[in-house]
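All the exercises in this workshop are built on plain-text protein records. Instead of coordinates, the fold is spelled out as a row of discrete tokens. Once this layout is familiar, the rest of the handout is easier to follow. The record below serves as our worked example for the rest of this section.
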Amino acid sequence: MHVLAVRRPGQRGTQKLVALYGERLVCVRYRYDAASGARYKTVELIVDQAAWSPPPPHPHADKPLIRVYRIDDLETPSPQQVGVKVFFRENELRERVKAAGGQWSKAEKLWRLAYRMAISLGLEHRIAKR
């Protein structure tokens, strides 16, 4: 069975269910079963609400690691990282950024690089503003 559509309250196909369930409606899912040729409409409802606070972190939880690329980096605890825009077809520039220690950030769609390296490569005009 596959879910092919998820609708939030107020979207097309949910009006009758919003009228029936009101604020308790979280979403409506349309599920399809190829074997039986059936379509199922399911709803997710809030049935209870209670106060909750997250537990404190475990005292032995992993601490974030400090990456050291060169022995000089031990003196500066975390060099300032900047996002640098390199376009898809700029292969030579991309290779230079990688050689300088740049790492691709999939979430930001930018190359993360130490600020001083970006300046030394002449990329100050490509630094992304936050």
